[in-house]
Amino acid sequence: MHIHVVGVDHESASLSALASVGPADALAARVMAREPAIAGAVLLSTCNRFELVTDVCDGTDADTVLALVRRELEALCPQVDPLMLAGLSVTSDEAAVRHLFTVGAGLLSAVIGDKQVAGQLRRAYESASERGQCTARLHRLFHSCLHTSRTVASTTSLGAVGRSAAGVGLDLATRGRADLRGTRVLLVGTGSFARVVVAELVSRRAKEIMCWSASGRAPEFAAHHQVRPVPGGSLVAALREAQLVVTCSGNGVVLDEQTVLAARPELAAPAVADFPVVDLSLAGDVAASVAQLPGVRVVSLAEVVAKANGTQAEVIEEAQRVVEHGVREYLAKERSRAADPLVAALRQHVAMLVDAEIARCHAKESEEVAAAVERSLRHAAGALLHTPMVRVSQLVEQGRLEECTEALATLFGIEVEQ
Hints:
The protein is an alpha/beta fold. The protein has three domains: 161 residues, Beta Polymerase, domain 2 (2-Layer Sandwich), CATH 3.30.460; 145 residues, Rossmann fold (3-Layer(aba) Sandwich); 75 residues, no CATH class. The strands form two sheets. The chain has a six-stranded parallel sheet, with helices on both faces. A four-stranded antiparallel sheet has the order 2-3-1-4, sandwiched between helices. Strand 6, helix 11 and strand 7 form a beta-alpha-beta unit. The radius of gyration is 29 Å and the shape is elongated. Keywords: NADP, Oxidoreductase, Porphyrin biosynthesis. GO terms for molecular function: glutamyl-tRNA reductase activity; NADP binding.
């Protein structure tokens, strides 16, 4: 069995490209149905990451799984962005495990230490588990990954400093003001990251959150979140009401100079206003000319990342050490499981020899003598087996399974299928 992770993230595809696979919730079930060798699959789909974690039988290689995922994505999402498909890549086995642990710790997020990713990973695992899409190996993998994520959060300051991009961006825009009571906020975008932004704004007690979407999804988004939908043609009116704007649509420029000045012409005058705009889109939702307006202060995602990541080099290294320890511990346990068949075969081989000798003793000696011999033989067999069984487990943990298998065959004639 092998672990293969097929996916794409914010570094290899834009947010809009990632958003084009939004309806792909059925991907895990489809690839499992199409390829029986895929025994289990867990889909992690967020605003800046789309990854399918698979447990695959021997004989089906990583490229086969990658090609299958591409085909199924095209079938599920006919409008999928070609850049999304082009960005798909696959990692396998130890590299895949290390990748998942690193993701879970928040070390591959746009803002390193992002507190949202662990919850996203846990929900993805729980969803797959409820659907019966997790193998025993995937259960162990995700349990270990989430345990390591909690260890990073609790034993390093990355857990305390790591924040979502929304939180850091709002801190910069409001100059650290955590309480937004009395503030009307305009949210541009309705993707998965918009949910994070809403949660952050609600926690800061924003007076009202208006939501506008170029795709017209604001009413649908508002049905499930604490926002007031803004009709498609009312962006200018909403800008007039807003005291703070947060954009995360990922669909290219949606807020240009003309639109801003149509709503707030006073922003063109120097030192008249201080209108904060937080642009959390990788592609950039706010035109560069908007940032040149004297009355507008644009906080870009690059600033957010620099602020969050710039002073954390030592903390990041510390978190990476915790992750590496978790990876080594998980891999050692998985390798040791491969020793179970060898240990069982060795134990069975010795037990058969002992049972045969006890049977001969019972046939020749009195019950009292035979009982004493049986006790001695079983005790001696247990003592003799202890060290070989421990050594087999240790060697298999070191990746020497094949050597141990050959040794049992050579020394005892025990054949164990790997």
